[in-house]
Structures are given as structure tokens and as C-alpha cells.
Amino acid sequence: MEKRTIKLGILGLGTVGSGVAKILLETSKNINQKMKKKLELAKILDKDLTREREIEVPAEIMTDKPEEVLENPEIDIVIELIGGVNPAKDFMIRALKAKKHVVTANKEVMAKYGSDLLDLAEENGVDLYFEASVGGGIPIIRSLKESLTANKVEEIMGIVNGTTNYILTKMTQEGADFADALAEAQDLGYAEADPTADVDGYDAAYKLSILSAIAFGSRIDINDIYLEGISKVTQKDITYAKELNYVIKLLAIGKEVDGKIEARVHPTMIPNNHPLAAVNDSFNAVFVKGHAVGELMYYGRGAGSMPTGSAVVADVIDIARNIINDANGRIACSCYEEKELKSINEVVSKYYLRLQVIDRPGVLAAVSGILGNNGVSIESMIQKSKTENGVPLILVAHQVNEGNIQTALNEIDNLAEVKEISSLIRVEGEECY
Ligand SMILES: NC(=O)C1=CN([C@@H]2O[C@H](COP(=O)(O)OP(=O)(O)OC[C@H]3O[C@@H](n4cnc5c(N)ncnc54)[C@H](OP(=O)(O)O)[C@@H]3O)[C@@H](O)[C@H]2O)C=CC1
Ligand SMILES: N[C@@H](CC=O)C(=O)O
Ligand code: NA
User: Fold this and answer.
1) Is 164 annotated as contributing to ligand binding?
2) Which residues are responsible for catalysis (predicted)?
3) Are 109 and 117 in contact (CB under 8 A)?
4) Residue 360 domain-assigned?
5) 140 lines ligand 2 (CB under 6 A)
């Protein structure tokens, strides 16, 4: 049956909303030619209609009344770009119940409520797409759901937060101050409305939860993901990492080993020659290992108005194609199994440790003795010259269970010669690449 124009409504004309509107308005001829159908941006909801925007949109399509989008019988696809849980989630529910397809960039909502929303979409015979929620413009969700679907995914390891990658890049390459680098990332539109979501690792954890659900077929409760942000990463550790030929990145790591899932987000040292080490600024990259395809890496802009807009508009076009072909619901929710999650103590990794010790004979023997008794063997060690607060002792431990390292550190902390355990950073990546 010949379809009328497909009408779109945007919720939230902020950083991403402006990118989406720009692409839709400026590229409409090209999009319509590709679609052989007209896509029309019919309404845009935002709270403040007087604020100056990044983009000029016709005044008559702006509204501050949610019902003009959500209850508008003309609108086929609702694009949620408000962020946060509510009212974004309620608006998505209203749209799905009104049998409107939904596209969202909202990782928090998808990580926390994605499976219920996907069920609701299915019940209502509509699609819910969320490519922009992970890796911004990188087509990672579509790749996992479609191009890699023949695989049993064994591992996903990625830099999935543009803000923290921008901050760590500036701190590493320019010795920048944390707060200044964060302010720049905010100015560039990379950060969340509340940037603690970026800095403390929640944003990366939401993304890992979404990726893991698709890759491993099992829902992962966001609260079960081991999480450390970047606020404790110091210039000292960045400098010692350089000496050891490592770089520090905030990694999201998901693995399936013997049917058990490992899911963690934390600052990680990776070798300088590792492919993820060259991923800088707001770029993201996701490394995937599938049983059949082997290793792949997806790389691109993980944040920002236009790159994220690119993923959102691609979802819109995909849904429009489904509408034209009466083909919604092609790919159902991928969480078909319940798999056990490993605790962090069961994780096996290499470790970088930085201790502050008293300059006294026997201290090295005491520390290495405790490590050895706990099955931790030392790969390399640097002892720096004396400071007014003792001597920094930097160790890299071979692969071992996290439980062993933690027990050893508790014992080391009790040594009179040890003033402080300053840092523990996991080290990944050497063996596989
Ligand atoms: N920025 C990025 O690079 C990326 C963002 N995302 C995700 O995209 C979504 C949007 O992010 P972003 O564009 O950066 O966020 P912004 O804060 O820039 O934009 C959100 C917009 O929605 C408006 N808004 C807030 N509450 C309401 C409401 N109740 N009704 C109508 N409008 C409202 C805001 O107005 P006001 O400013 O007045 O509050 C603002 O204009 C988030 O889920 C984010 O996580 C995903 C990938 C990348
Ligand atoms: N705040 C996020 C935006 C994209 O998802 C980030 O910095 O990656
Ligand atoms: Na993406």
C-alpha cells in the first residue's frame, strides 16, 4: 500500500537534538531520494522556546507541550533526546502505547528499562531503536544485532565514553588539569547534563550493560557491573604508565568465559602499541571478539552533536524503511538467557600497583614476600628516589585473580614500612593483540 509522508517528532532540542534536526533539515533531499519517500520533521518539543539554539528551525514546528508530539496522530516516529530517566522514559512509554515507533540516544533508560520498553514496543507492533546510545556515531549496536549475529561473542572491550577519553587524552598529552579538561569536554557538548555520570563511569557502565545484553544474550543489572571512574587517576600514574610503555584509558570490559559473564568499567593500563591506545579525544572504539569472525574493532566519534545525530537519523531511516515495507519487529529483544555474573574477585588481570614506602632496608623483601605468598608474581618494578613522603614503589604484577591481589594488599597495608597504597590499576591487552 502506498504510504503517506513519514512524520517525525523530536523530544529535546539540545546538543543531539540540534544535530538530528540539522541532518534532517539540511539533508532532506538526499534522505528522501534514498527513501523514495518523504520524511518530514513535524514537531520539536523543548522546555524553553525562547532560548537561542545551535540551529534555526521553523518556529511553527516548535512546541513546549509534550502531547503535541506524543498524542499527535500524524507523527509516526518519536525521537527521544531529552536524557535522564524521567520524563524521558514516561514519554517513550506514552509514544509506544500510542503505537509510535521510538528512536532514543538514552543509554540510562535503555540500560535500566530497555527490556521492558522493547517488550512494550513488541506488544504495540512498533520498533524501538537505540544505536546512538552506545558509541555515538559508531554503528556498534546494529553490527552486534545484525552483522555479527552468527557469532558467539567472547569479549567486548571498549572506550565508550567520549568525555573521559577527552579528559584522559588532555591529561596524558598536555599535562592538563582534570577540571579544565572536563570544562572543555562540556563546552564541546560531549558531557552528560550531570557530568559525574561520565567521570564516575556510570555512562560507560550503562553502555556496557546495553552491549553485553546484545552480545551475550543476558540482561546485566547495572548495579552488578563493577565500576570505578577516572577521578582517582593522577598525573603521577599517567607519568609512570608512560615509563612502563602503557597508556591509561577508561575501559568497559565484557567477557563470557565458561558461561559466566564478566562486566567491569575501570581505568585500565594498556600497552602503547595496543589499538585502543591510539583512540584519543572524544573518539570511541569497541573491540569485539566473536568465535567465528575473530577480532574486530569499531572506531569513530563517540559523542557530539553531528556524530550522534548521524546514528539517530540512521535509526529513523531504518524504521521508515520498516514502515514502508510493513516489517517492524524484525529483531526482538536479545536477552534470551540468564547468565551468572562473576564477582570482581574472580576476575583475572595484570595489575599496576603504586605504594609509598619508608626508605628502610627490608621493605622490598617484605612487600614481595607478601605478594609471593598470595600467588602474585612481579613482572617489573621501579623504585623512585626519595620524596618528603617516603619512596614511591611501582610494581606490575603478572596475571592473577583479583582476590589474591586484594588479600595481599590488605596485608601490605598493615606493614609498618608502608605509608600508603596509592594506586591499583588493572592492566589489559597484551596477550591478545
Ligand atoms: N551529547 C552527546 O554527545 C551524546 C548524548 N547522548 C544522549 O542523548 C541524550 C541527549 O543528550 P544531549 O543532547 O547532550 O543533552 P542536552 O541537555 O544538550 O539536551 C536535552 C534537551 O532536552 C531539553 N529538555 C529537558 N527536559 C525536558 C522536558 N521535560 N521537556 C522538553 N525538553 C526537555 C533540554 O532543555 P534544558 O537545557 O532547558 O534542560 C535540552 O534542550 C541523552 O540521553 C544523552 O545521554 C548520546 C550520545 C552522545
Ligand atoms: N557523555 C557521553 C555522550 C555520549 O554518549 C560521552 O561522553 O560519551
Ligand atoms: Na552507536
Assistant:
1) no
2) 207 (proton donor)
3) yes
4) yes
5) no
Mean pLDDT across the stretch 160-166? 98
Distance 18 CA to ligand 2 centre (A): 16
How would DSSP label each residue in 311-333? HHHHHHHHHHHHHHTT-TTSS--
Would you place residue 430 in the very low, low, confident or very high pLDDT band (cuts 50, 70, 90)?
Answer: low
Q: Is the CB of 15 under 6 A from ligand 1?
A: yes
* Predicted confidence (pLDDT) per residue in 41-53, tens digit: 999 999 999 988 8
Q: State the closest ligand 1 atom to the C-alpha of 17, by its place in the atom list counted from 1.
A: 13
- Asked if pLDDT for residue 432 goes beyond 60, the answer is no
- Alpha-carbon gap, residue 351 to 360, rounded angstroms: 25
Whether residue 333 is contained in a domain is answered as no
Does residue 77 come out as left (phi exceeding 0), alpha (psi in the -120 to 50 range) or beta? beta
Torsion of the alpha carbons at 3, 5, 8 and 9, rounded to the nearest 10:
-110
Are 125 and 145 part of one and the same domain? no
Question: By C-alpha distance, which of 104, 283, 290 is closest to 206?
Answer: 104
Residue of 16, 159, 161 to test ligand 2 pocket, by largest number of atoms within 8 Å of CB:
161
Q: Tell me whether residue 89 is one of the annotated catalytic residues.
A: no
Residue pointed to by grid coordinates 540510562: 108
